[in-house]
Amino acid sequence: MNKYLLALLLLFGLGKAYSQAEKTDQVAFQAGEQITYKLKYGFFTAAEAVIKTENSTQKFDGKPALHITADAKTAGTFDVFYKVRNRYETFIDPKTLLPYYYQEDRHEASYKHSDKVTFDHKTNKITADKGTYPFTGNVFDFLSAYYFARNLNVSHLKVGEKLELRYFLEDGIHSMTITFAGREKVKCALGTFNCLKFNPTIIPGRIFRKNSMLYLWVTDDGNRIPIKAHVELVVGSLVMDLSAAKGLKYPLNPVKK
Question: What is the pTM of this model?
Answer without folding.
Answer: 0.86
